[in-house]
Amino acid sequence: MNLKKSYKLSIIGLNRFYLVGICLLFISPIACVGKHTKESKVVDIAKQPNILFILTDDHASKAISAYGGGLNETPNIDRLANEGIRFDRCFVNNSICGPSRAAILTGKFSHINGLTDNGIKFDNTQVTFPKLLQQAGYSTAVVGKWHLGSQPSGFDYWNVLPGQGDYYNPEFIEMGDTTVVKGYVTDVITDISLKWLKKRDANKPFCLLYHHKAPHRNWMPAPRHLNLYDSINFPVPESLFDDYKNRGTAARTQEMEIDRHMYPIWDFKLATLAEMDAYIASNRYKNKNDNGLDSKSKNMLEANDKSADLAKFLRVYEKMTVEQRKAWHKAYDPKTKAYREANLNEKERLEWKYQRYVKDYLRSVAAVDENIGKMIKHLEETGELDNTIIVYTSDQGFYLGEHGWFDKRFMYEQSYGTPLIIRYPKKIKKETVSKALAMNIDLSPTLLDLAGIEIPEDIQGASLTPILENNGTVNSNWRKATYYHYYEYPSWHSVKRHYGIRTERYKLIHFYNDVDEWELYDLENDSQELDNIYHQPENKALIDALKDQLKELQIEYKDLDPTEQKIKFFQK
Ligand code: SGN
Ligand code: CA
């Protein structure tokens, strides 16, 4: 392939696209989305609704009973869904923490807001929805997980976890000052939030970003939940034993398998009280503190090096009080002993690991749900509930054993999708369910819209308000497809860079960088995404059409990159 020639062709192709794009600006369905702004009007801010924005970390929709996952019960999150709207097809721009959070705040894709992977600091001088609300007269605050590298800006009050934060007795950075707060992180985040809500300036509407750490790895449950689900055996996902046949290199070379990539102590809590005491007494592991693993200790962990795994757990274990450790071991040690004595075969061992993982994950969710109940109760008691827009979402979905995985990153449904529930009875009817293709970049314009604040022209998401007001249905202008781009490679879990498009029925993904592989899934006939049909000759016309649609989205969202790799992807 003559690269120079193809580059020229691409440029000509692009110019043509831009011209066509400009001509079609007023009729193109894609162009219509994201340009919705309100005419300037004088708004009495004091009368505007409050906003409670609940963001969890890595919460799969399947672990919310309102989504019918069949695993756990989440009565308080369900209440929000039952009294509001549940979006069944909300997707993220880039399935990883910082990039999703930056997209939520700015309403823009990673290549525009600059935060393409977790290693980059958020440019906090950018326009964000909390900043615009603050400027318009809202009281604003963020409490809990932030994980954007730079200091929160646009908030009257902030009290956030450093980095990922810890489950037990976590440090918090309150307006620049770091303190350790005793307790369980999900409860503490709620206590701080309620304290702020009670003390804030009651003459102004509030916007509180209430951001949980849970249920992020390593899923340490609250003391009161350590035995929850002990007597239950959760259903095993069909694809737990996936062999990655009919998939590409990326699925085969990832490092996020429950069986091979979880750590015995950090993830499965396989260290008894006596063992922990002995480890601490031996003092051998003290210097292997790996909060933010360097590549050496990461390799050690990959090689299942026990000392690196232990060092990781010791860092959080040493922060626990004597009582907390006692409760911990009282719950885990008998189960650990039984596991060791059972002498399981390979298949049984994976099933055991799956149960241990999913139970801890769901136990962490249980505390989130209880605490959301406390927040709802507070709003009810103060008479503010119906004048508060409550949003429940996560920074992305998560694998609960599908494909044998944990973690996220891939554009496959479990991690590409994220829960989205909104309660606001003034605009949303009870028990509304929407199949609209929604995205995390839509949240910023939606909240601005509902607060009566003009949506900046350069926001790439679109306000969901018409869908909220229209029983969850979309009008003909709504987007027909969502766009995705993941960049964090090489890195944790080794998921290759990729971008793609998802329509109502199909998903086309291009893995690039050190591979050049396409995948196509028919979500109607293969909802589990187990069969890549890209190479079937009869799909040629479909693939051509999807590639055109993908190209249109890249132009619309300005995700153009003049590197050789990207030039390649403009060719069919
Ligand atoms: C940590 C986790 C990873 C996870 C990243 C990103 N490892 O590094 O499993 O993918 O965070 O998560 S851990 O052993 O330290 O828990 S994110 O939600 O912040 O993007
Ligand atoms: Ca996350």
Automatic annotation (TrEMBL):
CDD domains: G6S_like. PROSITE patterns: SULFATASE_1, SULFATASE_2. The keyword RNA-binding does not apply. It comes from the Bacteria. The keyword Ribosomal protein does not apply. InterPro entries: Alkaline_phosphatase_core_sf, SGSH_C, Sulfatase_CS. This is Sulfatase. Belongs to the sulfatase family. It holds the Pfam family SGSH_C. PANTHER family: N-ACETYLGLUCOSAMINE-6-SULFATASE FAMILY MEMBER, N-SULPHOGLUCOSAMINE SULPHOHYDROLASE. The chain crosses the membrane at residues 12-31. Keywords: Hydrolase, Membrane, Transmembrane, Transmembrane helix. It comes from Flavivirga spongiicola. Residues 401-554 form the N-sulphoglucosamine sulphohydrolase C-terminal domain.
